[in-house]
Design a protein that fits this description.
mainly beta; 4 strands; elongated
Length: 76
């Protein structure tokens, strides 16, 4: 099975939209149809890079008591 990857740039010849991902019995590999560059892709799920939009786990915040002190109207 072959799939072209939109927007991908070849690491060898720097051509855009020329990378195809192929799957066969040896595994998955990407190949440039312009220059012939090819390499094997790692098995397993791809790790998503951290971005400013990715959620990070926040440390558990401890609860604190807040006391509101009201001043009389004439002191405002």
């Amino acid at each position: 099975m072959r799939r072209f990857i939109a927007g991908a740039i070849c690491p060898e010849c720097r051509a855009a939209d020329r990378i195809v991902v192929e799957e066969d019995e040896s595994g998955r590999r990407r190949r440039c149809v312009s220059c012939g560059y090819a390499d094997l892709l790692p098995e397993g799920p791809a790790t998503e890079p951290a971005t400013r939009l990715s959620r990070r786990r926040r440390a558990e915040a401890s609860a604190a008591v807040v006391r509101i002190v009201e001043r009389p109207d004439d002191e405002r």
